[in-house]
Structures are given as structure tokens and as C-alpha cells.
Design goal:
Order of helices and strands: EEEHEEHHEHEHHEHEHEHEHHHHHH
Shape: globular
CATH superfamily of the largest domain: Aldolase class I
CATH architecture of the largest domain: Alpha-Beta Barrel
Distance between the termini: 30 Å
Oligomer: single chain
Number of helices: 15
Number of domains: 2
Radius of gyration: 20 Å
Number of strands: 11
């Protein structure tokens, strides 16, 4: 049984990665329906929370059906991160996660996210201060290092555990790699196999199929896997991996009705959470993902992204079922 503090997650938990503009409550709903064991909010700016910025505060919204759920925060200033952790604690998530992994320039080059990988003493001071300011378990998501010459994750992992974190997720790339190339899980395995480490170690990067999930589980010995990009438009990946791990059998891909049902649920939850106008507009980025691999879909996609009417969008989605009744999509 894998546990973060007192949070029991099962024998080999599957985690939904915190993804900006993706892992909001509507998307988390469909992932939870399909078996995600632990989910995180989008990463939230500590400065935004302190200034009470509407966009940052809205990201604190969590719901009982999502539990266990973590709120992830990022920032470059220790005092601000501590205040943000206190604010996040008040909405009663199951844990607080610190983002030491975001590689994008506007974050990392300001010393936040993966930017702090160049300053391990500050990383430890920040982590220790956050651990001490909340009664909740604190976890960390990070990368192997800043670049190939500074892959210091073995030392960093030990030191993070020493200052009190309860679990560590490692993305198998450096900051310089961004999301390019192949993730290197060998160093993740070294962290996991370090006899000094006793907290759960989760691996992240490139898991896009049940077969790869099983292969990496066996080869690298991690306690669980975090899934990010492969879940976008395909929340079924959680149930597919679980079924394969338990039985050795691959599930059939989702039917067209299941595709439409998930997309419709995502759409309706977006309307409920964001309001009609914003919900309609922000859902437009998801349609192509839900129907990826479907031939001649462009006409439907254009109608979906051009419509500004809830009932019309629901009608278009229902027509997709009729048009492609028995069509199974490519499982990517």
C-alpha cells in the first residue's frame, strides 16, 4: 500500500499531472471517473494568491468527489510561497505540492519552477519553511536537474526528504530538455533504490500506453506513475493501464459513444465552473483531442469551435455518434 502521510493510494497509484490550462475541475472530473488515484490542481502562482488575483484564487476550487487532491503552488520567493501554502491549506486539500519542475521560460527564468534547480540551498530552505507552515503533507514535483551537467536529483531527493516532504515525483528530463527527447527514468530508479529513501517515489514522463506503464513499473521499480499529456483527450488511459496491470489484457479503445459522453461531461462541467461564455470558449481547445484519429472530423470541429450556444454544441456532439456509430478511434 502506497501512502502519502495518512493518505492511502493503493498498491500502484496513477497520478494525474498538474497541467496549466488543462487539469482544471472539469477535466479532473472525467479523469477521476476513469480511475485517477491522485490528482492535482493546475499550478498556482504564489504571488497571484497573495494578491488575491481572480485567476489564481479560482484554481483553489476543489470538490469532495476529487479526493485525494493536492494543490500545487509555484514561486521564487520563500515568504510568498509560505503565505501561499497557508492560503491553500485553508481550503482543505489533502496535500500541498511544490512545483520545482515547470520548465517554461516565464517561470523558470525567474527562479521559480525548474529555475530553483540551480540553487539547491534555496530549494531546501523554501521546502522546509512550507513543511513547517502547514499541517498537511507536503510533496514535490521536480526534474533531474537544470541540464546534463547538473543532474543532481540523487542528492536533491535525499535533502528534500530530510526537510520533511512526504512524496516525490520526478520528471525524467532536465529543464533544458523541456519536453523534447526521451525521458530518462534510470536516475528515477536510482532515487527509488537509494536505501536512504523511504518516501514514495513517482515517475513521470512519456507514459502513453498500458504496455509502457507495465514495462516502466517493472524496470524502474517506482511506487506509482504520474500521467500528463497522454491523458489529454484520453482520460481512459487510467482505466486502461489499471486493467492491463491487473490482467495483462488490453481493453478495447473507447467507443464513439464513450468519447462523446466524456467530451459532453467535460463541456457541461466547464459551463458550470467557468460560466457559459468562458466555458464555451475554453472548451474549444479540447475537441480535437477527444476525437483524435477520426477521419473527416474537420467539419464537426469547425462547427464546435464556431458555435456559441450550449444546446447547439450538445446537438453537434450527439450527431458525431450517429455519423461514426461503430467507429473505434486509434488508441494513442
Amino acid at each position: 500500500m502506497v501512502k502519502i502521510g495518512d493518505i492511502a493510494l493503493g498498491d500502484f497509484p496513477l497520478l494525474l499531472a498538474p497541467m496549466e490550462d488543462v487539469s482544471d475541475p472539469p477535466f479532473r472530473f472525467v479523469c477521476k471517473e476513469n480511475g485517477a488515484d491522485l490528482m492535482y490542481t493546475e499550478f498556482i502562482s504564489s504571488e497571484g494568491l497573495i494578491r488575491d488575483a481572480a485567476k489564481s484564487v479560482q484554481k483553489l476550487d476543489i470538490f469532495e468527489y476529487e479526493r485525494p487532491i493536492g494543490i500545487q503552488i509555484f514561486g521564487s520567493e520563500i515568504d510568498s510561497m509560505v503565505e501561499a501554502a497557508k492560503i491553500a491549506t485553508k481550503v482543505n486539500p489533502d496535500l500541498i505540492d511544490i512545483n520545482y519542475g515547470c520548465p517554461v521560460k516565464k517561470v523558470a527564468c525567474k527562479g521559480a519552477g525548474a529555475g530553483i534547480l540551480t540553487n539547491p540551498p534555496k530549494m531546501m530552505a523554501m521546502t522546509k519553511a512550507i513543511v513547517e507552515c502547514t499541517h498537511l503533507p507536503v510533496t514535490v514535483k521536480t526534474r533531474l536537474g537544470w541540464d546534463d551537467s547538473t543532474k543532481n536529483i540523487l542528492d536533491v531527493a535525499e535533502r528534500l526528504q530530510d526537510v520533511g516532504i512526504k512524496a516525490l515525483t520526478i520528471h525524467g528530463r532536465t529543464r533544458v530538455q523541456l519536453y523534447k527527447g526521451e525521458a530518462d527514468w534510470s536516475l528515477i530508479a536510482e532515487v527509488k533504490n537509494n536505501p536512504r529513501m523511504h518516501i514514495p517515489i513517482f515517475g513521470n514522463g512519456d507514459i502513453d500506453s498500458p504496455e509502457k506503464a507495465l514495462e516502466y513499473k517493472n524496470r524502474y521499480g517506482v511506487d506509482g506513475i504520474m500521467i500528463g499529456r497522454a491523458s489529454i483527450g484520453h482520460p481512459w488511459i487510467f482505466r486502461e493501464i489499471k486493467h492491463y496491470l491487473n490482467t495483462g489484457e488490453l481493453l478495447d479503445g473507447p467507443t464513439m459513444q464513450e468519447r462523446v459522453n466524456a467530451c459532453t461531461t467535460h463541456f457541461e462541467k466547464s459551463i458550470q465552473w467557468k460560466g457559459e461564455r468562458v466555458g464555451i470558449v475554453e472548451m474549444r481547445r479540447h475537441y480535437a483531442n477527444y476525437f483524435r484519429g477520426l477521419s473527416h472530423f474537420k467539419e464537426f470541429r469547425m462547427k464546435l469551435v464556431q458555435s456559441e450556444d450550449i444546446l447547439e454544441i450538445q446537438s453537434i456532439l450527439n450527431k458525431i455518434v450517429d455519423e461514426y456509430a461503430d467507429n473505434h478511434l486509434i488508441t494513442l
